[in-house]
Amino acid sequence: MTLQSKIGSAAADAAAILERLGVPAERWTGGARAVHSPVTGETLGQVHDTDAAGVAAAVEAAHAAFLAWRNVPAPRRGELVRLFGEELRAAKTDLAALVTLEAGKIVSEAQGEVQEMIDICDYAVGLSRQLFGLTLATERPDHRMMETWHPLGVVGVISAFNFPVAVWSWNACLALVCGDPVVWKPSEKTPLTALAVQALFERAAARFGDAPADLSTVVLGGREVGEALVDHPKVPLVSATGSTAMGRAVGPRLAARFARSLLELGGNNAAIVAPTADLDLTLRGVAFAAMGTAGQRCTTLRRLFVHDSLYDAFLPRLKAAYGSVRVGDPRQAGTLVGPLIDEGSLAAMQRALDEARAAGGQVTGGGEVEVAGCGGTYVRPALVEMPSQAGPVVRETFAPILYVMRYSDLEQAIALQNDVPQGLSSSIFTNDIREAELFVSPRGSDCGIANINIGPSGAEIGGAFGGEKETGGGREAGSDSWKAYMRRATNTVNYGRTLPLAQGVSFDL
Ligand code: UN1
């Protein structure tokens, strides 16, 4: 199909997918909030915002579900997630196509995002038989001390437009096997993919049979909907992904009522290209991490420190890649960079580039790209050679801008890498084992993710995902992240006939 014949078809394609996935028409038509495709600018749907009473009702219903779900054995709860994974496998092509239409991701990345959901389902199913606690040494005879992990309650999930479905699934699949229902507020820019996922979940729940109603609900709208979720006393944990500004608003509100927060906020991720780096591999790693998803991942590579000894060999190759990368309709084979989410992103990108120029930066790329007949915002990624780490370099601009700087001493490069407010992801490209180990040592990268010979983006779900400092400190997905969704009880059991007190205290009546 030619591009020309596809223009104007985004709305029709989205409607057909929503119908196939079983999303009732009244959920995505007739509402006051228009949903636009970043691919063509077309209106894809009109969704209904949830009002404050609607959010409260969703939380109360989820809490009722919690009271039943916490009694269901965890491996049986895993069975629901297994069925959900089956629904996702069957719907992968459709759901990914909807991600492309609503978030603008290229086909391969959209499919990767749905695959990430399937992966976390599999992970959570296994986990449902491994929610273990420890048995601990006790100082008292005829006693046993142990810890047990119990379901926590309703989990609020606030997600961003750039991973409109996967981030929810990291939270929801773990929460569900841990015994917690989920109330989801997706980005107001991507409600349709959320409604599609909800429909798939409802199919899985129907097949499961006796699942309580309202284990998963979607509430739609802007900031006030998020606030209603964050402030509700029956939500003991909110997992929020988005900007640092959003986290600054959410974190203290949760702390004020002693609720838990799991924050995944901004990243300003760096990579170091050391003298022994394999330059072919580095070029591919840098290109994907910096230009992939049009620079709109929280793990996107934004700062590159290149050693003096290879700067002049590497930079021309990188510039050539920036000049030749195919920017355009994300539905078309061969496109590597799709649209920005909206014009606001382009404005922020241009502002950052102007500031970089004022600070002495040499900018290559960054101009708008005309995509035949399309109403989306398409831009060539920008490569900016900076004399120093200053101005816009120290903040996250959610757009494809890579700031490149020279370095001569690795410890200084690591210090610069760490000298930003954010601490999500980082990489070093090197074949020198001392450099590699230094980078992942206590005085190396200060980020939650530190990679060797891999770019900072594209993490798999088996590891704990998240970062330090203004990134918020939360960890999601793999390793022991599940503990955030449960409460730990310490139990001491006396199976003797006397009552020895701890610390040798005597209290004889
Ligand atoms: C995000 O951008 O919010 O590591 C999440 C990655 C993906 C997740 C990114 N697995 O890039």
UniProtKB/TrEMBL annotation:
InterPro entries reported for this sequence: Ald_DH/histidinol_DH, Ald_DH_C, Ald_DH_CS_GLU, Ald_DH_N, Aldehyde_DH_dom, ALDH7A1-like
Domain spans labelled Aldehyde dehydrogenase: 34-488
Record has Flavoprotein as a keyword: no
Group of enzyme by EC: oxidoreductase
EC identifiers of the protein: 1.2.1.3
Alphabetized GO MF terms: aldehyde dehydrogenase (NAD+) activity
Lipid biosynthesis among keywords: no
Residues forming the catalytic site: 264
Keywords, comma-separated and alphabetical: NAD, Oxidoreductase
Pfam family, one: Aldedh
Assembly: Homotetramer.
Family: Belongs to the aldehyde dehydrogenase family.
Protein name per its UniProtKB record: aldehyde dehydrogenase (NAD(+))
Organism: Phenylobacterium deserti
